[in-house]
Amino acid sequence: MFDHSEQFTLGLIIIVYFIFLLLMSLYIKRNIKTYDDYNVASRTVSIFPLMLTFISTGVGGATLLGYMENGYVAGMGQQWIHITMLSAVIVLAVFFLKRIRLLGEKHQMVTIGDYIALRYGEGARIPTVISYLFAYCAMTGMQFVAIASVLNLTIGVPMFSGVLIGWILLTIKTYFGGLKAVIWQDLVQGIILTIGIIVLFFVVMYDAGGWSEVSAKAIQQHQPEMLDVLHITPNEILIYLLTLAFYQFIRQDVWQRIWAAKDLRTARTGYTISMIIAVLLGAMVVLIGVYSHFGLDINIKDTPMIFYNVIQDVFPFPLVVAMILVLLAAVISSADSFFIAGASSIANDIIKPHVKAENQDRMLLYSKLSVIFVSMIALILALMIPGLVELMVTGTAMTVSGLLAPVVFGLFWSRPTKLAGNLSMWVGLVSAIIWQILGHPYGMHPILIGLPLSIVTLLVVTLFDKKGRTVAQ
């Protein structure tokens, strides 16, 4: 794909970029003195960095590589990923965010496990941690795969070695800097990826000749349905809704940033604006995939390489280098956010209850060690499940199955009891895991088993657990 001189240039740029991020983490590390500094960025983040960290976390490697491939292969029907996502973002901003923020302020929460323990008892932390480890380890592993693909296609590094390199570099960077470094690095990376995607979108649209020409070519190739937003099965829409969209309500990285904001107004404005931008960027990426198929007439069998084919088709090499940096910014900014979210679950919900609250130094160390633990699980998942979007959907399905019902019902309804909440988590999580291991019998996704069982369990136990209801009130 690239000749030797181009590979040398790309390799040098990638190395310099990683060194820059590592040095930035080490610089910010000097101001990380407490557990809150590391896990919720001292709760003082202002509007601009908050917006960019939300964008950077929402637009990851799966967005540029996975969604563009989906648009190229499956067409405009893949925009339902973003239609369902935007709906969830609006609901969270209007109905959830204020309640989440005020609870976090009042109880100095670090993780969703803090909320669930307050609502359903300390024992509820365990299924919460397990659920988040599935999601965040899967999504972190997804970024390892994305980095490996970048290294493989740009400088010829084998995929296995690339996954290991991504694992080592991202683990070191996140270990030192915590959420504070993540947010300030996202300030830089969010600008890079936002500008990069917008520029790529308009250049591709210009080169493709506009929608009318794309539509004419789709008709010539007897594939007009590829330009139809309804060219998708109801089952696919349902899966996107129940996994990627509903997951927004219980994303720990989102809740942590809501708590990291300096005040409620900053949290609400920053989240709403940034997530709308992130959804629009994702929609642009799907459109780029569609335009590349019918407008740029790119014809490839190895569809995961569509991003690289597109940038080489429309840009000279110096701008190709810039777009590789855009991809790296997207991958890295998501990976370290997932690291922190998963590691915080372990440190805050497993270790902290057994450590004296005033021992900040020890908890800060445990938070860093938790990053290493999460990275090990993520590495295993990355090597076992290489598909980008598949990996993300699998992880989010486990978490939604276990946590969505008790969290959402608990936020807005006082009657669910501790027993109901705990059983709901375990039933949803375990049933989804079993269904995944069995290989989706009858073609049913695990979310279609785990989430309904979790909801039914919560409602039935709440109805009959009168003694527990009295305790919960």
Report the radius of gyration as a whole number of Å: 22 Å
Number of distinct beta strands: 0
Mean pLDDT: 88
Helicity level, as a percent range?
A: over 70%
Termini distance? 64 Å
Low-pLDDT windows of residues: none
- Overall outline: globular
User: What structural category characterises the helix and strand content?
Assistant: mainly alpha
| Number of helical regions | 19
Main sheet properties:
none
* Helix and strand sequence: HHHHHHHHHHHHHHHHHHH
* Oligomerization status of the protein chains: single chain
Strand content: under 5%
Write up what this structure looks like.
The protein has helices spanning 4-29, 35-40, 47-58, 61-74, 80-107, 112-120, 125-155, 159-208, 211-220, 234-245, 252-260, 264-294, 306-314, 317-351, 360-384, 388-412, 418-437, 447-464, 466-472. It has 19 helices and no strands. Helix 8 crosses helix 14. The relative contact order is 0.18. It is globular and about 70 Å long. The mean pLDDT is 88. By secondary structure, it is mainly α. Helix content is 80%, strand content 0%.
Short structural description:
The chain has helices spanning 4-29, 35-40, 47-58, 61-74, 80-107, 112-120, 125-155, 159-208, 211-220, 234-245, 252-260, 264-294, 306-314, 317-351, 360-384, 388-412, 418-437, 447-464, 466-472. It is an all-alpha fold and 473 residues long.
